[in-house]
Design goal:
Transcription Regulator spoIIAA, elongated, alpha/beta, single chain, 21 helices, 60% helix, 4-stranded mixed beta sheet, 534 residues, two-stranded antiparallel sheet
Length: 534
């Protein structure tokens, strides 16, 4: 007999504790991996944005703790995004101070909360699957290409850059070639050892309880110390460079407040709206992509995510942090590390805060080449050969948008590349839609053809041309039945074509019958057209 406790049985409570403990065994190590990946990315993006390094770390902390707590996504991880660096850099220059820019971040956060409340996140339902798959593969390829220079010790470009054109006047390809001419042997050895650990360590079940990335960082740090003072020694810029905090007063002195006198400045509101739109789009794209690679195949609530991101940006702007989005690189690392719930995202934010306060000097001994090895393995899993084979077998209407998205993202940046992929994906969707407005059957009734055209469930104006061509091409002297019994909606333009054809068909000896076709149809509610589980 089970004892009821507030409507829940003791057995249910035990089961809940069991799954919580089981998830924690996966979430805490995954949070550690995300922390290791996020640390240099936060610093690199802050550096590229022309903002204080602390603002990048602060955005990572808030993205983990605040956004992670509010978000309904179990695997998405938020933080400062590479896609916003140009906007941040230009905005700080235009506004004249970092404090004025912080006001933009806070306002952008409020705008995102409003977007979530008015359910603007529904737009995520319209991202074609082939484009999302292409974005994931492109991010994987970018990680491999961008992390290779860091793996061999060439660190001219900032950590976390995703754009094709780099701020160091190089591009992705020329950066790789430049890296070959400036290889650091010590960094290469650390990267190769790290890659070997990342590949083979998880295959040994007895050893897999120790996360491979943790071992990579420990061993990489030890090797860097051993190489010090030798020909294999690493340069200072080839290590993590987190700001050192020596006292409580110094720590609180790092926080900055927005300059609220800029509320009357038109440029502040334009910048805030730009950040809100770009950050929301990148968040929704990342969220959709993470749901694709979630092994449990959960669906994240998009509107709640916009509210969570808005809350994060509002807090970040008020405390002195960079704007943030859901970030596919960190989220992918989270999934690949085996995370099960959002505890991992929150834990990574806590680790960023604790390590900033307690052991910054220890973190500064971690070589970037071993962290690059972790990201290289993440990149390979995102852009695996099997994914290309899978998309090829789906047909050209899926494969072509997939490939074009990859090429576009790699050669431009995330949002522009996805935009190009969306245009191609929508073209194929419209092309397929125009080809399938009906089912067509031909029979015989004595000497006459009997043609039955059964219209689809939804017949939009996009089907107008296909139906017009079909009706015009019907053979003379036929009996034609146009069946609308399956249709919930027929566009007025299509109805006009059908009625005009019925009135004029007698001139060709064609007899037309309309079966269950109404004079007019009301547009179905959006909730009936788009289905997404709660």
């Amino acid at each position: 007999m089970q004892i009821k406790q507030g409507g829940v049985t003791a057995g249910d409570l035990n089961l809940k504790k069991y799954f919580l403990a089981k998830n924690l065994k996966k979430d805490l190590p995954a949070g550690l991996v995300v922390f290791l990946v996020a640390l240099p990315l936060c610093l690199g993006i802050a550096l590229a944005s022309g903002a204080p390094l602390f603002s990048g770390i602060l955005a990572g902390i808030i993205g983990g703790i605040v956004v992670g707590t509010i978000s309904g996504s179990q695997l998405s991880v938020a933080g400062p995004a590479a896609g916003l660096t140009v906007i941040v850099l230009n905005s700080i220059t235009k506004l004249g101070s970092f404090e004025s820019f912080l006001l933009c971040v806070a306002i952008a956060g409020a705008m995102q909360i409003i977007l979530g409340l008015v359910k603007a996140g529904t737009i995520a339902n319209y991202f074609p699957s082939s484009v999302i798959e292409g974005m994931l593969a492109a991010i994987g390829i970018i990680l491999i290409m961008k992390q290779f220079p860091h793996a061999v010790g060439y660190d001219k470009d900032y950590e976390g850059d995703e754009g094709f054109s780099q701020m160091d006047t190089e591009n992705t390809f020329s950066g790789i070639f430049s890296a070959f001419s400036k290889i650091n042997s010590g960094a290469v050895i650390i990267a190769l050892v790290s890659l070997a650990i990342m590949i083979y360590w998880p295959k040994v079940k007895k050893l897999a309880m120790i996360p491979a990335p943790l071992l990579v960082v420990v061993l990489g740090t030890v090797l860097a110390s051993v190489f010090a003072g030798t020909s294999l020694a690493l340069l200072d810029k080839q290590f993590v460079q987190i700001p050192l905090v020596h006292s409580t007063n110094e720590f609180f002195g790092l926080f900055k407040s927005p300059d609220f006198s800029g509320l009357s400045n038109k440029q502040v509101w334009i910048t805030a709206a730009t950040i809100a739109i770009v950050a929301s789009l990148e968040t929704l794209l990342s969220l959709e992509a993470v749901d694709k690679i979630d092994p449990i195949k959960r669906i994240s609530p998009t509107n709640r995510e916009l509210v969570a991101q808005g809350a994060g940006n509002l807090v970040s702007g008020l405390l002195g942090g960079l704007p943030m989005t859901a970030v596919i690189v960190r989220s992918s690392a989270n999934v690949n590390a085996g995370a099960r719930t959002k505890v991992s995202a929150v834990f990574h934010g806590v680790l960023l805060l604790v390590c900033l306060l307690a052991i910054p000097s220890v973190l500064n001994k971690i070589p970037l080449s071993c962290l690059a090895a972790i990201l290289l393995t993440v990149g390979y899993k995102l852009a695996r050969i099997g994914l290309f084979k899978h998309m090829w077998h789906k047909g050209l209407d899926q494969f072509i948008p997939f490939v074009i998205t990859i090429v576009a993202v790699v050669l431009t940046d995330l949002l522009i590349g996805v935009g190009i992929g969306m245009l191609v994906g929508v073209f194929y969707i419209l092309r397929t839609n125009m080809r399938n407005p009906y089912f067509y059957t031909i029979g015989r009734n004595g000497d006459k053809n009997t043609i039955r055209i059964k219209l689809a469930e939804e017949v939009s104006f996009l089907n107008k041309a296909a139906i017009q061509i079909t009706l015009t091409g019907l053979p003379k002297g036929s009996d034609v039945v146009i069946d609308g019994s399956n249709s919930r909606y027929i566009d007025p333009d299509v109805l006009e074509i059908i009625n005009n054809y019925r009135h004029n068909a007698y001139t060709k000896g064609i007899i037309v019958q309309l079966h269950e076709i109404k004079e007019r149809y009301d547009i179905p509610p959006l909730k009936d057209l788009v289905y997404k589980p709660e």
